[in-house]
Amino acid sequence: MGFHGFFLFAILIPYISFGTSSHESQNLTSSSLNDLEGLIGFSSCLESAIPDWNSYASPDYCTWSGVTCVGTSVVRLELGSTRLMGKICESLVGLDQLRVLNLSDNLFTGSLPNTLFHLQNLEVMDLSNNHFEGPINTAICSSLPQLRVIKLSGNLFSGKIPGNLGNCSSLQHLSINENNLSGSLPGSIFQLQYLRVLLLQENKLSGQLSKGLGKLSNLVEFDISNNEFSGILPNIFGSLTRLKFFCAEANRFTVLVSLSNCLRLEGIGHGSDHLHCGEIPVNFKKLQSLTQLSLSYTGLHNLSSALEVLSHCRNLSTLLLPWNFHNEQMPQPQGQNIVFSNLKVLVLSNSQIKGSFPKWLSGCKMLQMLDLSWNHLTGSIPSWIGNLNNLYYLNLSNNSFTGKIPQSLTVVLSLQLRNLSLEQTTFAFPFKMVGNVNIYKRVSSYRPSLVLSYNKLEGPMWPGFGNLKSLHVMDLKHNSLSGPIPWQLSGMVMMEILDLSHNKLTGEIPQSLIELSFLSSFDVSYNQLHGEIPEKGQFDTFPPTSFQGNMDLYYSHDTSGFILSPPDETCAQPHYQKLEIIGFPFWFGGVAGFLITIAMCFTSGWLFS
Ligand SMILES: *[C@@H]1O[C@H](CO)[C@@H](O)[C@H](O)[C@H]1NC(C)=O
Ligand SMILES: *[C@@H]1O[C@H](CO)[C@@H](O)[C@H](O)[C@H]1NC(C)=O
Ligand SMILES: *[C@@H]1O[C@H](CO)[C@@H](O)[C@H](O)[C@H]1NC(C)=O
Ligand SMILES: *[C@@H]1O[C@H](CO)[C@@H](O)[C@H](O)[C@H]1NC(C)=O
Ligand SMILES: *[C@@H]1O[C@H](CO)[C@@H](O)[C@H](O)[C@H]1NC(C)=O
Ligand SMILES: *[C@@H]1O[C@H](CO)[C@@H](O)[C@H](O)[C@H]1NC(C)=O
Ligand SMILES: *[C@@H]1O[C@H](CO)[C@@H](O)[C@H](O)[C@H]1NC(C)=O
Ligand SMILES: *[C@@H]1O[C@H](CO)[C@@H](O)[C@H](O)[C@H]1NC(C)=O
Ligand SMILES: *[C@@H]1O[C@H](CO)[C@@H](O)[C@H](O)[C@H]1NC(C)=O
What we know:
There is one protein chain. The protein is an alpha/beta fold. It has a domain at 460-600: Leucine-rich repeat, LRR (right-handed beta-alpha superhelix) (Alpha-Beta Horseshoe), CATH 3.80.10.10. It has seven helices and 36 strands. It has an 18-stranded mixed β-sheet. Strands 3-5-7-9-11-13-15-17 form an eight-stranded parallel β-sheet, with no helix packed on it. α1 (3-21) runs antiparallel to α3. The longest helix is centred in the last third of the chain and has 22 residues, at 573-594. The protein is globular, with a radius of gyration of 29 Å. The protein starts with a helix and ends in a 15-residue tail after the last helix. The model is unreliable at 1-28, 259-276, 423-430, 432-439, 559-563 and 565-609 (pLDDT under 50). Residues 352, 374, 398, 454 line the site of one 2-acetamido-2-deoxy-beta-D-glucopyranose (NAG). InterPro entries: Leu-rich_rpt, Leu-rich_rpt_typical-subtyp, LRR_dom_sf, LRR_N_plant-typ, LRR_R13L4/SHOC2-like.
């Protein structure tokens, strides 16, 4: 018994003696004693105190934090995010009227006690984001028939999904994502006719998915990503007409079989030894409610048919299809047969897609985020891109775009507004990298960025870029940009990362750039710049490597008279180390803050209404 429990037990003694000798004044029923005992017993198993549960001043447990009563019966126990440690013990069974048990986001350990499954009135069980382990008790549905919500995500549960889940016939929400569950999906799950949310991502679930999934006709959110499901992803989408969110990436599916056209994907993460082959099923057209679709890394092919099918999903706002369509041609249909009027986020990266910039995007006026990086796109970046007034993130890195940077980008409205709100895009999605490393990013973690690095762009840097007051990242490295760095860039007041390295820029580094007070990373190495390196402001924190490989750049206070020109690189060592000590924390802070790595496809902050 922890210290705290002992303290509460001391309160219980006068309570009991008083209660038995004077029923009338205290009005204690046996049920209220059970509730009190239940709470005290629960508390006594903890290794940490519960705020407000330790006072003689409030013997009425119904006023304790997180406790809600009807009469003297506890009906809700809600202690989420209170840093509670320890185990849940048997005594909780005393709360026989409990309907809502919410212990999410704490530090609970151990397995779930059997008595938890005697709480016959329980409707909501939220134990997500703790360190619970062991199997999910098979009693969960045979004993708790009223359960509407089961949230066990973000724990260490292992073993199989209980086969009798179908007995939780009232179940609307089941999230057991981010655990260590294995085995196949029990067929009884398909009996849950009220199920709206089914989140299974990030486990080790395997086997084939049955067509029975199509019976879950009320399903709104469905995520099976990052598991080991194999075989054919059943074409059940004709019946899941309420589906708004579907995520199935990083499994071992062959989406639909047409085997002669299959592509063998090699060397991309796990699953590389599997034959992937499939198209977006035509009856995806029926998913009129679909708002978000993430099928990255599923071995899809036929981009042209995928876009045609998905353009029928009028409400589609997020489309994430990276690592698919290997080596295909970017479709450029004539006329208006691809229209995504509500599309806000499009990720079609890492696919070595050939051809030119997609013209059909000019109709996507809502577009906020466009990632076409790591493809083989050629030709120029069209100037109509400046008409996409909501765009705040553009990543065209590592293509073969030529010509000038469209001047129209300097007037993209959302990049000009300083008070830009990214709240519309709070959902999360996984972003896969080569190898076995999965990187997950929340869309809202993408800061306003203009990334055109590793292309063949030439021409000037427009002075108008200074208008982009909300831009945080400008990465133009490895192009052939020429002319001076405009002094007006000091207008990009939110700038954190400015990388202009490996271009053909000339002139001096404008002194005005010292005004960029958020700048944590700056790189102009390997250009043809000359003159004094600005001092003061953030410039005191950038390492000499940011300036190397230029014509004639120097520090005015450099007593050694050292000039950062290419042949002298090796001599830079002592100087470099001195400055690096100052520069590193700034640089690190900026980058670490940007690449927010989260271990889930959704976060609690995001839910469909
Ligand atoms: C006291 O008990 C009586 C009879 O069981 C019940 O009607 C009444 O609501 C109780 N009072 C309180 C404050 O719980
Ligand atoms: C549990 O409590 C947390 C806050 O601590 C809340 O965000 C969450 O929505 C609750 N769970 C349910 C199922 O209501
Ligand atoms: C659970 O459901 C099965 C049928 O799926 C049924 O045979 C069994 O009696 C149910 N168990 C309980 C406890 O309701
Ligand atoms: C996951 O479960 C397997 C057995 O299915 C077990 O061997 C392994 O240790 C578990 N991993 C963790 C991190 O709990
Ligand atoms: C599409 O979105 C609009 C606006 O949010 C909504 O009113 C409409 O019901 C949605 N259509 C479908 C088929 O879900
Ligand atoms: C792609 O799909 C379209 C329409 O379904 C079809 O006409 C075309 O032949 C397919 N292309 C390939 C390469 O399979
Ligand atoms: C742009 O895309 C590349 C390749 O996908 C990625 O590595 C890089 O982090 C992206 N840049 C930003 C600022 O998001
Ligand atoms: C560019 O993309 C190719 C794959 O298309 C990849 O192998 C290469 O590493 C990428 N280069 C950079 C600099 O990101
Ligand atoms: C943003 O700023 C503009 C002008 O500065 C103002 O008109 C607009 O109302 C602001 N929007 C928000 C959401 O604060």
